[in-house]
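Problem 3 from the worked examples.
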Amino acid sequence: MATFVDQVTLHLRAGSGGHGCVSVRREKFKPLAGPDGGNGGNGGDIVLVADSQVTTLLGYHRAPHRSSENGGPGMGDHRSGHKGADLELPVPVGTVVKDEDGTELVDLTEPGMRFVAAPAGQGGLGNAALASTKRKAPGFALLGTPGWEGDIRLELKTVADVALVGFPSAGKSSLIAAMSAARPKIADYPFTTLHPNLGVVEAGSVRYTVADVPGLIEGASEGKGLGLEFLRHVERCTALLHVLDCATLDPGRDPLSDLDVILGELAAYPVPDGQTPLLERPQLIALNKVDVPDARDLAAMVRGELEGRGYRVFEISAVSREGLRELSFALAELVEADRARKAAEPAAPRIVLRPKPVDARDFTIRVEGGSDGPVYRILGAKPERWVAQTDFTNDEAVGYLADRLAKLGTEEELFRVGAVPGSTVVIGEGNAIVFDWEPTLTSAAELITSPRGADERLHPNLRPTRNQRREEYFDRMDAKAEARAELLREKEAGLWREDDGG
């Protein structure tokens, strides 16, 4: 049965918001005393909290489905629904949170850090909150929006100062047990350590943590053995301690060849951007098991060559504790120097929160091709949330949605991108709400004298210009002068007289 898990996928569902209430207050002698429907409560968030008392993701491996409480619905007499309780999930310090695509969302490297992994839904407003001077008794309320639902991935990367690396059965577990109070499993067969073990070491006034990483073999960076699965736990370490087995009985193995293999695997492992490559970090060599006579002789033979490569070498024995004090103080020097360097580094850049510009649009319109003509898709947090809050079985609620969208400026933007009355408009991604768009008359509607169902404002502008009106005036004057001259000619020809009476 597994006792340590450092990777898990969580299936989360945040609480949904409660629906608003439609209610009218009724009292004696006041059968319709006004709307009094309360608001729905917000749902509960799902929050990840970095906890130093948690060391494994095993609990989430066994129960990966987590959900928070829904918000309560609003009630009459101005009673709001209850807010759903937040669900806090403790995770080990050093947990990396990623989305389904593997994109890193947050790195919980400090105890107490919090991250809202699944935001809750928003409660809907009751008809009392929707009342205004123009809408005194709303017959509708807003619906609560659903909470976020999806999957996230958790990856644990051990936060330790020193990592013990080496071949299986090199004595790493025995060493961490001898240097600290950790009690890992120790046996005489390879791959005894199936998960990293942490131990706290005190050397004088310096306290630091040591991680025992499962044994590496050749090809670990390509997935052989358990190395690739646990090499991520070395990423955050300040220094590396190579534990070399001087008493191995395997043919073809010796401390020098073991070190070359480990260095090759560490060099092949990619670290995240911004971190120091593994081989560029401080490294020490521990020649282990010198309590065995042959091992002591072998350690003396290879020590000179290792020191020639630039390493500090310590001959130790986890059984007799020989050389452990000198090794612990040497590691403390490296850790203390790294801490001093980090303290001298400039502080992290400040996070500046800037307000959104007042003229910034809360939506965008994307024109998509369709078999029946272009489709205009409205995208944005506000319009999509408003659609989710609308009860489409209530005509008044649909009209309220149309008013909100018009005030947001969607109609002007639809005109700008080429939409015409009757165009297909979709709000939201995927199979969202589809409308046949009809522009809303927002001003001077009572002055329109066009037939019902028509709007002269949408017709072409046929108003004549000043020059056209002048030409028309002169044409009329010329026509009248020509008519008078024609009458005079007929009179002179005797076709009629003024005393004819006709």
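Problem 4, a separate protein:
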Amino acid sequence: MIESEKLENKNLIEKSVTHLQATGFEHIKADIEGYETPKSYTRKGHDSKITPDIVAIKNGRKYFFDISLKSKKPRLLKTKWLFLDTISRMKSDRFRIITTKGHYKFTEDMLEDINLANKEPIKL
């Protein structure tokens, strides 16, 4: 999710972290209070930073997670997803998307628009 939406959706990030802990993820970093903040990436030529919502490790492999909610700025969200997917592939890591009821269709359409339809979102 984009930066402006993180404050109003903290409970969804917390729910996602709980789900990831239950499925065996460790060393979880999340963009909420009580957790270490994941590393931010600065876009060249822009002042904006891209920060994954959650970063965790499972079986020695790093996973980047982004939470998908209907957004008023879908272009910004697409840019973030493409960037995180590229970074994860460069380092042999994994990029996954977490979504919730009411946002499945939006998420699938967004993934199709940016040719990431092979990504299966985690549905909470």
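Solution to problem 4. The first strand starts at residue 26 and ends at 30. The mean pLDDT is 90.
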